[in-house]
Amino acid sequence: MSKIVKASVDSLQKAIENAMHAAIAAGDLPQAELPDFTIEVPADTSHGDFATNAAMAGARAFHSAPRKIADAIVKHLSLEGTYFDRCEIAGPGFINFFLNRRFFGDVLKDVHRLGKEYGRSDYGKGKKIMVEFVSANPTGPMHMGNARGGALGDCLASVLDAAGYNVWREFYVNDAGNQIEKFGLSLSVRYQQLFAGENAPELPEDSYHGEDILDLAKAYADENGDSLMEKTEEERRAALVAFALPRNIAKMKADMKKYRIEYDEWFLESSLHESGAVKAVVDLLAEKGLTYEQDGAIWYKGADFTAKYAKVKNKDDEQPKDEVLVRQNGNPTYMTADIAYHKNKFDRGFDRCIDIWGADHHGHVARMKGAMDAIGLDGEKLDVILMQLVRLMKDGQPVRMSKRTGKAIQLADLLDEVPVDAARFLFNMREASSQMDFDLDLAVQQDAQNPVYYVQYAHARICSLFRKMEENGVTVRECTDEELAKLTAPEEIELIRHISSYTDEIILAAKDYDPARITRYVITLANLFHRFYNACRIAGEEEGLAAARLLLCEAVSTVICNVLHMFKISAPESM
Description:
Layout: H1 3-25, E1 39-40, E2 50-52, H2 54-57, H3 59-62, H4 66-75, E3 84-90, E4 94-99, H5 101-114, E5 128-132, H6 144-162, E6 166-173, H7 178-195, H8 211-224, H9 233-258, E7 265-268, H10 269-275, H11 277-287, E8 291-294, E9 297-300, H12 303-307, E10 323-326, H13 334-347, E11 352-358, H14 362-374, E12 382-387, E13 390-394, E14 397-398, H15 411-417, H16 420-426, E15 436-439, H17 440-444, H18 451-471, H19 481-484, H20 490-500, H21 502-512, H22 516-535, H23 543-566
Parallel strand pairs: 5-6, 5-11, 6-7, 11-12, 13-15
Antiparallel strand pairs: 1-2, 2-4, 3-4, 8-9, 9-10, 13-14
Protein backbone atom coordinates (compact mmCIF):
# COMPACT_ATOMS: atom_id res chain seq x y z
CA MET A 1 0.00 0.00 0.00
CA SER A 2 1.06 3.62 -0.39
CA LYS A 3 3.18 5.17 2.34
CA ILE A 4 0.32 7.37 3.54
CA VAL A 5 -2.27 4.58 3.61
CA LYS A 6 0.18 2.25 5.35
CA ALA A 7 0.97 4.93 7.94
CA SER A 8 -2.74 5.46 8.58
CA VAL A 9 -3.44 1.72 8.99
CA ASP A 10 -0.35 1.13 11.16
CA SER A 11 -1.17 4.04 13.46
CA LEU A 12 -4.79 2.90 13.74
CA GLN A 13 -3.79 -0.67 14.59
CA LYS A 14 -1.49 0.62 17.33
CA ALA A 15 -4.24 2.90 18.69
CA ILE A 16 -6.72 -0.01 18.85
CA GLU A 17 -4.18 -2.25 20.60
CA ASN A 18 -3.39 0.52 23.12
CA ALA A 19 -7.13 0.99 23.76
CA MET A 20 -7.52 -2.73 24.50
CA HIS A 21 -4.59 -2.68 26.92
CA ALA A 22 -6.05 0.42 28.61
CA ALA A 23 -9.49 -1.20 28.86
CA ILE A 24 -7.92 -4.29 30.48
CA ALA A 25 -5.97 -2.13 32.93
CA ALA A 26 -9.13 -0.22 33.87
CA GLY A 27 -11.11 -3.44 34.35
CA ASP A 28 -13.47 -2.73 31.45
CA LEU A 29 -12.15 -5.86 29.72
CA PRO A 30 -10.88 -9.04 31.43
CA GLN A 31 -7.21 -9.98 31.31
CA ALA A 32 -6.55 -11.82 28.06
CA GLU A 33 -4.17 -12.03 25.12
CA LEU A 34 -5.12 -9.49 22.46
CA PRO A 35 -6.92 -11.07 19.50
CA ASP A 36 -5.79 -10.80 15.89
CA PHE A 37 -8.04 -8.41 14.01
CA THR A 38 -8.31 -6.79 10.60
CA ILE A 39 -8.59 -3.22 9.39
CA GLU A 40 -10.28 -2.85 6.02
CA VAL A 41 -11.90 -0.30 3.75
CA PRO A 42 -15.68 -0.85 4.01
CA ALA A 43 -17.76 -1.35 0.88
CA ASP A 44 -19.69 1.85 1.64
CA THR A 45 -17.26 4.58 2.72
CA SER A 46 -20.13 6.80 3.85
CA HIS A 47 -20.09 4.58 6.95
CA GLY A 48 -16.39 5.24 7.49
CA ASP A 49 -13.06 5.25 5.66
CA PHE A 50 -11.76 2.21 7.53
CA ALA A 51 -13.41 -0.41 9.74
CA THR A 52 -12.14 -3.00 12.21
CA ASN A 53 -13.56 -6.30 13.43
CA ALA A 54 -11.51 -6.11 16.65
CA ALA A 55 -14.58 -6.43 18.89
CA MET A 56 -15.91 -9.52 17.10
CA ALA A 57 -12.43 -11.06 16.95
CA GLY A 58 -12.10 -10.53 20.73
CA ALA A 59 -15.42 -12.14 21.73
CA ARG A 60 -13.86 -15.50 22.57
CA ALA A 61 -10.75 -14.09 24.26
CA PHE A 62 -12.68 -11.61 26.41
CA HIS A 63 -15.76 -13.86 26.93
CA SER A 64 -17.97 -10.90 26.21
CA ALA A 65 -20.44 -9.62 23.60
CA PRO A 66 -18.75 -7.81 20.69
CA ARG A 67 -20.82 -4.67 21.26
CA LYS A 68 -19.63 -4.45 24.86
CA ILE A 69 -16.01 -4.96 23.74
CA ALA A 70 -16.44 -2.22 21.10
CA ASP A 71 -17.76 0.18 23.79
CA ALA A 72 -14.69 -0.54 25.93
CA ILE A 73 -12.29 -0.01 23.02
CA VAL A 74 -13.88 3.29 21.99
CA LYS A 75 -13.97 4.50 25.63
CA HIS A 76 -10.18 4.16 25.90
CA LEU A 77 -9.29 5.01 22.30
CA SER A 78 -6.97 7.92 21.57
CA LEU A 79 -6.70 8.97 17.91
CA GLU A 80 -4.10 11.62 18.62
CA GLY A 81 -1.19 11.36 16.19
CA THR A 82 -3.20 9.28 13.71
CA TYR A 83 -4.86 10.24 10.45
CA PHE A 84 -8.31 9.79 12.07
CA ASP A 85 -10.48 12.26 13.93
CA ARG A 86 -13.48 10.17 15.02
CA CYS A 87 -15.05 6.71 15.09
CA GLU A 88 -18.49 5.10 15.40
CA ILE A 89 -19.72 1.70 16.52
CA ALA A 90 -21.98 0.01 14.00
CA GLY A 91 -24.07 -3.18 13.90
CA PRO A 92 -22.99 -6.01 16.19
CA GLY A 93 -19.68 -4.34 17.05
CA PHE A 94 -17.84 -3.06 13.98
CA ILE A 95 -15.91 0.13 14.67
CA ASN A 96 -15.80 2.59 11.75
CA PHE A 97 -13.11 5.27 11.55
CA PHE A 98 -13.19 8.56 9.68
CA LEU A 99 -10.06 10.12 8.20
CA ASN A 100 -9.09 13.68 9.00
CA ARG A 101 -8.22 16.38 6.46
CA ARG A 102 -4.49 15.88 6.93
CA PHE A 103 -4.71 12.43 5.34
CA PHE A 104 -6.21 13.75 2.11
CA GLY A 105 -3.66 16.55 1.90
CA ASP A 106 -0.75 14.19 2.53
CA VAL A 107 -1.94 11.89 -0.26
CA LEU A 108 -1.65 14.76 -2.74
CA LYS A 109 1.76 15.70 -1.38
CA ASP A 110 2.86 12.07 -1.80
CA VAL A 111 1.73 11.92 -5.44
CA HIS A 112 3.39 15.28 -6.14
CA ARG A 113 6.66 14.06 -4.57
CA LEU A 114 6.77 10.63 -6.20
CA GLY A 115 5.42 11.52 -9.65
CA LYS A 116 6.13 8.64 -12.07
CA GLU A 117 7.04 6.38 -9.16
CA TYR A 118 3.65 6.76 -7.45
CA GLY A 119 1.92 3.40 -7.28
CA ARG A 120 5.09 1.33 -7.30
CA SER A 121 5.95 -0.78 -4.25
CA ASP A 122 8.39 -3.43 -3.03
CA TYR A 123 5.61 -5.95 -2.38
CA GLY A 124 7.27 -8.56 -4.64
CA LYS A 125 10.66 -8.17 -2.90
CA GLY A 126 12.47 -8.53 -6.23
CA LYS A 127 11.45 -12.18 -6.70
CA LYS A 128 12.05 -13.44 -10.23
CA ILE A 129 8.88 -14.16 -12.18
CA MET A 130 8.60 -15.31 -15.78
CA VAL A 131 5.46 -14.52 -17.75
CA GLU A 132 5.27 -16.67 -20.88
CA PHE A 133 2.51 -15.50 -23.18
CA VAL A 134 1.20 -15.65 -26.75
CA SER A 135 3.70 -18.40 -27.81
CA ALA A 136 1.69 -18.81 -31.02
CA ASN A 137 2.42 -21.68 -33.36
CA PRO A 138 5.01 -20.38 -35.88
CA THR A 139 3.45 -22.32 -38.74
CA GLY A 140 0.80 -19.65 -39.40
CA PRO A 141 -0.34 -16.08 -38.74
CA MET A 142 -1.38 -14.86 -35.30
CA HIS A 143 -5.09 -14.53 -34.57
CA MET A 144 -7.55 -12.82 -32.22
CA GLY A 145 -6.73 -15.04 -29.26
CA ASN A 146 -3.11 -13.93 -29.57
CA ALA A 147 -4.29 -10.30 -29.55
CA ARG A 148 -6.02 -10.84 -26.22
CA GLY A 149 -3.19 -12.96 -24.83
CA GLY A 150 -0.65 -10.35 -25.86
CA ALA A 151 -2.43 -7.52 -24.06
CA LEU A 152 -3.15 -9.66 -21.00
CA GLY A 153 0.37 -11.05 -20.69
CA ASP A 154 2.19 -7.78 -21.30
CA CYS A 155 -0.06 -5.81 -18.94
CA LEU A 156 0.23 -8.50 -16.25
CA ALA A 157 4.02 -8.37 -16.55
CA SER A 158 3.87 -4.58 -16.15
CA VAL A 159 1.65 -4.84 -13.06
CA LEU A 160 4.00 -7.40 -11.49
CA ASP A 161 6.94 -5.09 -12.22
CA ALA A 162 5.14 -2.17 -10.54
CA ALA A 163 4.44 -4.41 -7.55
CA GLY A 164 8.15 -4.99 -7.04
CA TYR A 165 8.82 -8.25 -8.87
CA ASN A 166 11.75 -8.88 -11.20
CA VAL A 167 9.79 -9.76 -14.35
CA TRP A 168 10.89 -11.63 -17.48
CA ARG A 169 8.73 -11.81 -20.62
CA GLU A 170 9.15 -14.87 -22.82
CA PHE A 171 7.74 -16.25 -26.09
CA TYR A 172 8.08 -20.02 -26.60
CA VAL A 173 8.54 -20.85 -30.28
CA ASN A 174 7.35 -24.39 -31.14
CA ASP A 175 9.84 -24.84 -33.97
CA ALA A 176 10.14 -28.62 -33.56
CA GLY A 177 7.91 -31.65 -33.41
CA ASN A 178 4.74 -32.70 -35.18
CA GLN A 179 3.55 -29.25 -36.21
CA ILE A 180 6.84 -28.55 -38.01
CA GLU A 181 6.62 -31.91 -39.81
CA LYS A 182 3.08 -30.99 -40.87
CA PHE A 183 4.32 -27.54 -41.90
CA GLY A 184 7.00 -29.11 -44.10
CA LEU A 185 4.52 -31.51 -45.68
CA SER A 186 2.03 -28.70 -46.40
CA LEU A 187 4.73 -26.49 -47.96
CA SER A 188 6.03 -29.37 -50.08
CA VAL A 189 2.60 -30.19 -51.50
CA ARG A 190 1.85 -26.53 -52.28
CA TYR A 191 5.27 -26.15 -53.89
CA GLN A 192 4.81 -29.24 -56.06
CA GLN A 193 1.37 -28.03 -57.11
CA LEU A 194 3.05 -24.96 -58.64
CA PHE A 195 5.08 -27.08 -61.08
CA ALA A 196 3.66 -30.61 -61.38
CA GLY A 197 0.23 -29.79 -62.81
CA GLU A 198 -2.10 -32.80 -62.83
CA ASN A 199 0.62 -34.98 -61.34
CA ALA A 200 0.84 -32.84 -58.20
CA PRO A 201 -0.15 -34.48 -54.91
CA GLU A 202 -3.31 -33.46 -53.09
CA LEU A 203 -3.07 -31.58 -49.80
CA PRO A 204 -3.90 -34.09 -47.01
CA GLU A 205 -6.94 -33.34 -44.88
CA ASP A 206 -4.93 -32.96 -41.66
CA SER A 207 -2.31 -30.59 -43.12
CA TYR A 208 -2.29 -26.77 -43.10
CA HIS A 209 -4.72 -25.36 -45.66
CA GLY A 210 -4.26 -21.61 -45.07
CA GLU A 211 -3.46 -19.21 -47.88
CA ASP A 212 -0.24 -18.33 -46.05
CA ILE A 213 1.20 -21.77 -46.90
CA LEU A 214 0.64 -21.18 -50.63
CA ASP A 215 2.11 -17.68 -50.33
CA LEU A 216 5.28 -19.09 -48.74
CA ALA A 217 5.62 -21.80 -51.39
CA LYS A 218 5.25 -19.16 -54.11
CA ALA A 219 7.81 -16.92 -52.41
CA TYR A 220 10.34 -19.76 -52.42
CA ALA A 221 9.56 -20.52 -56.06
CA ASP A 222 9.97 -16.87 -57.03
CA GLU A 223 13.49 -16.90 -55.59
CA ASN A 224 14.60 -20.44 -56.47
CA GLY A 225 12.33 -21.67 -59.26
CA ASP A 226 11.65 -25.41 -59.49
CA SER A 227 15.03 -26.40 -58.06
CA LEU A 228 13.42 -28.56 -55.36
CA MET A 229 11.41 -30.71 -57.76
CA GLU A 230 14.42 -32.97 -58.31
CA LYS A 231 15.19 -33.29 -54.60
CA THR A 232 14.01 -36.05 -52.30
CA GLU A 233 10.85 -35.38 -50.29
CA GLU A 234 12.91 -35.06 -47.10
CA GLU A 235 15.31 -32.57 -48.70
CA ARG A 236 12.44 -30.55 -50.19
CA ARG A 237 10.61 -30.26 -46.90
CA ALA A 238 13.79 -29.31 -45.03
CA ALA A 239 14.63 -26.57 -47.55
CA LEU A 240 11.10 -25.15 -47.49
CA VAL A 241 10.91 -25.14 -43.69
CA ALA A 242 14.36 -23.52 -43.48
CA PHE A 243 13.07 -20.81 -45.84
CA ALA A 244 9.58 -20.30 -44.41
CA LEU A 245 10.00 -20.67 -40.64
CA PRO A 246 12.37 -17.69 -40.14
CA ARG A 247 9.99 -15.57 -42.22
CA ASN A 248 7.04 -16.53 -40.05
CA ILE A 249 8.99 -15.88 -36.85
CA ALA A 250 10.17 -12.51 -38.17
CA LYS A 251 6.54 -11.63 -38.97
CA MET A 252 5.51 -12.62 -35.44
CA LYS A 253 8.22 -10.39 -33.97
CA ALA A 254 7.14 -7.50 -36.19
CA ASP A 255 3.47 -7.94 -35.19
CA MET A 256 4.38 -8.07 -31.49
CA LYS A 257 6.56 -4.97 -31.83
CA LYS A 258 3.70 -3.13 -33.55
CA TYR A 259 1.55 -4.22 -30.61
CA ARG A 260 4.23 -2.63 -28.33
CA ILE A 261 5.33 -5.96 -26.88
CA GLU A 262 9.04 -6.54 -26.41
CA TYR A 263 10.14 -9.94 -25.11
CA ASP A 264 13.24 -10.59 -23.08
CA GLU A 265 13.65 -13.84 -25.00
CA TRP A 266 12.16 -15.75 -27.92
CA PHE A 267 12.94 -19.27 -26.71
CA LEU A 268 13.22 -21.94 -29.41
CA GLU A 269 11.89 -25.41 -28.67
CA SER A 270 14.50 -26.78 -31.09
CA SER A 271 17.23 -25.67 -28.67
CA LEU A 272 15.88 -28.14 -26.09
CA HIS A 273 16.21 -31.01 -28.56
CA GLU A 274 19.65 -29.90 -29.77
CA SER A 275 21.01 -29.53 -26.22
CA GLY A 276 19.75 -32.94 -25.14
CA ALA A 277 17.39 -31.41 -22.56
CA VAL A 278 14.38 -33.36 -23.88
CA LYS A 279 16.19 -36.71 -23.70
CA ALA A 280 17.50 -35.75 -20.25
CA VAL A 281 13.93 -35.43 -18.95
CA VAL A 282 13.11 -38.94 -20.15
CA ASP A 283 16.29 -40.24 -18.49
CA LEU A 284 15.49 -38.37 -15.26
CA LEU A 285 11.98 -39.83 -15.04
CA ALA A 286 13.41 -43.28 -15.80
CA GLU A 287 15.95 -42.93 -12.99
CA LYS A 288 13.08 -42.12 -10.63
CA GLY A 289 11.27 -45.28 -11.71
CA LEU A 290 8.49 -43.27 -13.32
CA THR A 291 8.62 -44.71 -16.86
CA TYR A 292 7.71 -48.00 -18.52
CA GLU A 293 7.63 -49.40 -22.05
CA GLN A 294 4.42 -50.45 -23.75
CA ASP A 295 3.73 -51.16 -27.42
CA GLY A 296 7.17 -49.87 -28.35
CA ALA A 297 6.62 -46.47 -26.69
CA ILE A 298 8.02 -45.03 -23.46
CA TRP A 299 5.31 -43.97 -20.99
CA TYR A 300 5.44 -41.72 -17.93
CA LYS A 301 3.59 -42.84 -14.79
CA GLY A 302 1.89 -39.49 -14.48
CA ALA A 303 -1.64 -40.36 -13.35
CA ASP A 304 -1.00 -39.95 -9.62
CA PHE A 305 0.98 -36.71 -10.06
CA THR A 306 -1.72 -35.28 -12.34
CA ALA A 307 -4.47 -36.29 -9.91
CA LYS A 308 -3.08 -33.93 -7.26
CA TYR A 309 -3.97 -30.94 -9.45
CA ALA A 310 -6.85 -32.30 -11.55
CA LYS A 311 -10.34 -30.97 -10.88
CA VAL A 312 -12.31 -34.15 -11.58
CA LYS A 313 -15.90 -33.68 -10.46
CA ASN A 314 -17.60 -36.74 -11.95
CA LYS A 315 -16.89 -39.88 -13.98
CA ASP A 316 -17.56 -38.04 -17.25
CA ASP A 317 -14.62 -35.68 -16.68
CA GLU A 318 -11.23 -36.54 -18.11
CA GLN A 319 -9.54 -38.84 -15.62
CA PRO A 320 -5.81 -38.50 -14.86
CA LYS A 321 -3.80 -40.99 -16.89
CA ASP A 322 -0.25 -41.94 -17.81
CA GLU A 323 1.34 -40.08 -20.74
CA VAL A 324 3.48 -41.12 -23.69
CA LEU A 325 6.96 -39.57 -23.53
CA VAL A 326 8.53 -41.17 -26.62
CA ARG A 327 6.50 -42.56 -29.51
CA GLN A 328 7.11 -45.89 -31.23
CA ASN A 329 9.08 -44.07 -33.94
CA GLY A 330 11.51 -42.76 -31.33
CA ASN A 331 10.27 -39.15 -31.46
CA PRO A 332 9.49 -37.42 -28.15
CA THR A 333 5.96 -36.06 -27.68
CA TYR A 334 4.98 -32.43 -27.18
CA MET A 335 4.43 -33.27 -23.51
CA THR A 336 8.07 -34.32 -23.11
CA ALA A 337 9.41 -31.14 -24.71
CA ASP A 338 7.05 -29.09 -22.54
CA ILE A 339 8.34 -30.75 -19.37
CA ALA A 340 11.90 -30.02 -20.51
CA TYR A 341 10.98 -26.39 -21.23
CA HIS A 342 9.42 -25.82 -17.82
CA LYS A 343 12.35 -27.52 -16.11
CA ASN A 344 14.60 -25.12 -18.04
CA LYS A 345 12.57 -22.17 -16.73
CA PHE A 346 13.02 -23.14 -13.09
CA ASP A 347 16.66 -24.08 -13.69
CA ARG A 348 17.18 -20.45 -14.77
CA GLY A 349 16.30 -19.37 -11.24
CA PHE A 350 12.72 -18.13 -11.55
CA ASP A 351 10.82 -18.22 -8.26
CA ARG A 352 7.52 -18.53 -10.08
CA CYS A 353 6.52 -19.17 -13.68
CA ILE A 354 3.26 -17.95 -15.16
CA ASP A 355 1.89 -19.37 -18.41
CA ILE A 356 -1.02 -17.83 -20.30
CA TRP A 357 -2.79 -20.49 -22.35
CA GLY A 358 -6.01 -20.73 -24.28
CA ALA A 359 -8.90 -22.31 -22.41
CA ASP A 360 -8.69 -25.37 -24.70
CA HIS A 361 -5.47 -26.31 -22.86
CA HIS A 362 -7.26 -26.74 -19.52
CA GLY A 363 -6.52 -30.47 -19.40
CA HIS A 364 -2.80 -29.82 -19.76
CA VAL A 365 -2.57 -27.68 -16.61
CA ALA A 366 -2.73 -30.51 -14.07
CA ARG A 367 -0.46 -32.69 -16.23
CA MET A 368 2.26 -30.04 -16.36
CA LYS A 369 2.05 -29.06 -12.68
CA GLY A 370 2.15 -32.75 -11.75
CA ALA A 371 5.15 -33.31 -14.03
CA MET A 372 7.06 -30.58 -12.16
CA ASP A 373 6.52 -32.56 -8.94
CA ALA A 374 7.58 -35.76 -10.69
CA ILE A 375 10.96 -34.35 -11.77
CA GLY A 376 11.65 -32.97 -8.29
CA LEU A 377 10.44 -29.40 -8.70
CA ASP A 378 7.36 -27.74 -7.18
CA GLY A 379 4.22 -27.73 -9.32
CA GLU A 380 2.70 -25.13 -7.01
CA LYS A 381 5.20 -22.61 -8.38
CA LEU A 382 3.82 -22.99 -11.90
CA ASP A 383 0.70 -20.88 -12.40
CA VAL A 384 -1.39 -21.19 -15.53
CA ILE A 385 -3.90 -18.54 -16.56
CA LEU A 386 -6.54 -19.94 -18.90
CA MET A 387 -7.84 -17.36 -21.31
CA GLN A 388 -11.29 -17.60 -22.84
CA LEU A 389 -12.15 -16.91 -26.46
CA VAL A 390 -12.63 -13.54 -28.13
CA ARG A 391 -15.51 -12.77 -30.45
CA LEU A 392 -14.95 -9.91 -32.88
CA MET A 393 -18.06 -7.74 -33.36
CA LYS A 394 -19.06 -5.07 -35.88
CA ASP A 395 -22.51 -3.48 -36.28
CA GLY A 396 -23.67 -5.79 -33.51
CA GLN A 397 -22.75 -8.91 -35.49
CA PRO A 398 -19.86 -11.38 -35.20
CA VAL A 399 -17.08 -10.83 -37.77
CA ARG A 400 -14.89 -13.68 -39.00
CA MET A 401 -13.47 -12.43 -42.26
CA SER A 402 -11.39 -9.37 -43.08
CA LYS A 403 -12.93 -7.04 -45.69
CA ARG A 404 -9.43 -6.12 -46.79
CA THR A 405 -8.18 -9.66 -47.47
CA GLY A 406 -11.34 -11.76 -47.52
CA LYS A 407 -9.57 -14.15 -45.13
CA ALA A 408 -9.85 -14.96 -41.43
CA ILE A 409 -8.97 -11.90 -39.39
CA GLN A 410 -5.42 -11.95 -38.09
CA LEU A 411 -3.69 -9.87 -35.43
CA ALA A 412 -2.00 -7.85 -38.20
CA ASP A 413 -5.40 -7.06 -39.76
CA LEU A 414 -6.75 -5.89 -36.41
CA LEU A 415 -3.80 -3.56 -35.81
CA ASP A 416 -4.33 -2.07 -39.29
CA GLU A 417 -7.96 -1.27 -38.48
CA VAL A 418 -7.86 -0.38 -34.79
CA PRO A 419 -5.52 1.99 -32.88
CA VAL A 420 -3.00 0.07 -30.76
CA ASP A 421 -4.06 2.14 -27.74
CA ALA A 422 -7.63 0.90 -28.09
CA ALA A 423 -6.64 -2.71 -28.72
CA ARG A 424 -4.38 -2.92 -25.68
CA PHE A 425 -6.91 -1.17 -23.42
CA LEU A 426 -10.06 -2.98 -24.55
CA PHE A 427 -8.47 -6.44 -24.53
CA ASN A 428 -7.45 -5.76 -20.93
CA MET A 429 -10.89 -4.81 -19.62
CA ARG A 430 -12.06 -8.24 -18.49
CA GLU A 431 -10.58 -11.11 -16.52
CA ALA A 432 -8.91 -13.81 -18.60
CA SER A 433 -11.47 -16.36 -17.39
CA SER A 434 -14.41 -14.53 -18.99
CA GLN A 435 -15.31 -14.67 -22.65
CA MET A 436 -15.30 -11.29 -24.31
CA ASP A 437 -16.63 -9.47 -27.34
CA PHE A 438 -14.27 -7.01 -29.00
CA ASP A 439 -16.34 -4.26 -30.64
CA LEU A 440 -14.53 -2.89 -33.71
CA ASP A 441 -16.92 0.07 -33.91
CA LEU A 442 -16.30 1.01 -30.28
CA ALA A 443 -12.54 0.70 -30.67
CA VAL A 444 -12.39 3.46 -33.29
CA GLN A 445 -15.03 5.68 -31.71
CA GLN A 446 -13.76 9.06 -30.51
CA ASP A 447 -16.19 9.86 -27.73
CA ALA A 448 -16.92 9.01 -24.11
CA GLN A 449 -18.43 5.64 -25.09
CA ASN A 450 -14.93 4.40 -25.90
CA PRO A 451 -13.28 3.65 -22.52
CA VAL A 452 -9.71 4.40 -23.61
CA TYR A 453 -10.78 7.67 -25.23
CA TYR A 454 -12.69 8.56 -22.05
CA VAL A 455 -9.57 8.05 -19.90
CA GLN A 456 -7.24 9.81 -22.34
CA TYR A 457 -9.68 12.73 -22.57
CA ALA A 458 -9.56 13.18 -18.79
CA HIS A 459 -5.78 13.55 -19.02
CA ALA A 460 -6.00 15.90 -22.02
CA ARG A 461 -8.62 17.97 -20.19
CA ILE A 462 -6.25 18.48 -17.27
CA CYS A 463 -3.41 19.44 -19.62
CA SER A 464 -5.73 21.96 -21.30
CA LEU A 465 -6.65 23.38 -17.89
CA PHE A 466 -2.97 23.78 -16.98
CA ARG A 467 -2.30 25.62 -20.25
CA LYS A 468 -5.17 28.04 -19.65
CA MET A 469 -4.11 28.69 -16.05
CA GLU A 470 -0.50 29.28 -17.16
CA GLU A 471 -1.72 31.93 -19.59
CA ASN A 472 -3.00 33.74 -16.50
CA GLY A 473 0.26 33.24 -14.64
CA VAL A 474 -0.97 30.39 -12.44
CA THR A 475 0.93 27.08 -12.23
CA VAL A 476 0.80 24.00 -10.04
CA ARG A 477 2.70 24.53 -6.79
CA GLU A 478 3.18 22.86 -3.45
CA CYS A 479 0.41 23.75 -0.99
CA THR A 480 0.33 24.25 2.75
CA ASP A 481 -1.66 21.97 5.03
CA GLU A 482 -4.11 24.83 5.56
CA GLU A 483 -4.67 25.21 1.81
CA LEU A 484 -5.11 21.47 1.29
CA ALA A 485 -7.60 21.37 4.17
CA LYS A 486 -9.90 23.51 2.01
CA LEU A 487 -10.60 20.43 -0.15
CA THR A 488 -13.81 19.40 1.57
CA ALA A 489 -16.32 18.90 -1.27
CA PRO A 490 -17.61 15.30 -1.53
CA GLU A 491 -16.30 15.12 -5.12
CA GLU A 492 -12.82 16.12 -3.94
CA ILE A 493 -12.75 13.69 -1.03
CA GLU A 494 -13.97 10.76 -3.14
CA LEU A 495 -11.40 11.52 -5.83
CA ILE A 496 -8.48 11.71 -3.39
CA ARG A 497 -9.63 8.55 -1.62
CA HIS A 498 -9.56 6.74 -4.97
CA ILE A 499 -6.08 8.08 -5.76
CA SER A 500 -4.87 6.88 -2.36
CA SER A 501 -5.88 3.29 -3.21
CA TYR A 502 -3.79 3.06 -6.41
CA THR A 503 -0.78 1.28 -4.87
CA ASP A 504 -3.05 -1.24 -3.16
CA GLU A 505 -4.92 -1.84 -6.42
CA ILE A 506 -1.66 -2.70 -8.18
CA ILE A 507 -0.70 -5.12 -5.42
CA LEU A 508 -4.13 -6.79 -5.56
CA ALA A 509 -3.93 -6.99 -9.37
CA ALA A 510 -0.51 -8.63 -9.03
CA LYS A 511 -1.73 -11.10 -6.39
CA ASP A 512 -4.77 -12.08 -8.46
CA TYR A 513 -2.96 -12.00 -11.84
CA ASP A 514 -5.69 -9.62 -12.96
CA PRO A 515 -4.35 -6.52 -14.77
CA ALA A 516 -7.92 -5.72 -15.87
CA ARG A 517 -8.43 -4.52 -12.29
CA ILE A 518 -6.19 -1.53 -13.08
CA THR A 519 -8.03 -0.79 -16.33
CA ARG A 520 -11.27 -0.63 -14.37
CA TYR A 521 -9.55 1.47 -11.69
CA VAL A 522 -8.42 4.13 -14.17
CA ILE A 523 -11.87 4.29 -15.81
CA THR A 524 -13.34 4.99 -12.37
CA LEU A 525 -10.61 7.59 -11.76
CA ALA A 526 -11.54 9.38 -15.01
CA ASN A 527 -15.20 9.27 -14.06
CA LEU A 528 -14.53 10.72 -10.61
CA PHE A 529 -12.37 13.44 -12.15
CA HIS A 530 -15.03 14.49 -14.65
CA ARG A 531 -17.54 14.62 -11.77
CA PHE A 532 -15.17 16.77 -9.70
CA TYR A 533 -14.36 19.05 -12.65
CA ASN A 534 -18.04 19.71 -13.31
CA ALA A 535 -18.76 20.43 -9.62
CA CYS A 536 -15.70 22.39 -8.47
CA ARG A 537 -14.42 25.56 -10.12
CA ILE A 538 -10.75 26.51 -10.15
CA ALA A 539 -10.51 29.76 -12.09
CA GLY A 540 -12.01 32.60 -10.06
CA GLU A 541 -11.81 30.77 -6.74
CA GLU A 542 -9.86 32.05 -3.72
CA GLU A 543 -6.14 31.55 -4.43
CA GLY A 544 -5.45 28.92 -1.75
CA LEU A 545 -8.40 26.75 -2.78
CA ALA A 546 -7.56 27.14 -6.48
CA ALA A 547 -3.97 26.05 -5.78
CA ALA A 548 -5.16 22.99 -3.83
CA ARG A 549 -7.54 22.01 -6.62
CA LEU A 550 -4.76 22.40 -9.19
CA LEU A 551 -2.59 20.07 -7.11
CA LEU A 552 -5.48 17.59 -7.07
CA CYS A 553 -5.74 17.82 -10.87
CA GLU A 554 -2.00 17.18 -11.11
CA ALA A 555 -2.40 14.06 -8.94
CA VAL A 556 -5.15 12.75 -11.23
CA SER A 557 -3.00 13.46 -14.28
CA THR A 558 -0.04 11.67 -12.69
CA VAL A 559 -1.99 8.53 -11.87
CA ILE A 560 -3.67 8.38 -15.30
CA CYS A 561 -0.24 8.77 -16.94
CA ASN A 562 1.26 6.11 -14.71
CA VAL A 563 -1.47 3.61 -15.60
CA LEU A 564 -1.44 4.34 -19.34
CA HIS A 565 2.34 4.33 -19.62
CA MET A 566 2.52 1.12 -17.57
CA PHE A 567 0.20 -0.47 -20.14
CA LYS A 568 2.11 1.15 -23.07
CA ILE A 569 -0.85 3.34 -24.01
CA SER A 570 -0.35 6.98 -24.97
CA ALA A 571 -1.46 9.84 -22.73
CA PRO A 572 -2.15 12.70 -25.19
CA GLU A 573 -2.01 16.28 -23.90
CA SER A 574 -4.68 17.48 -26.33
CA MET A 575 -7.56 15.76 -28.10
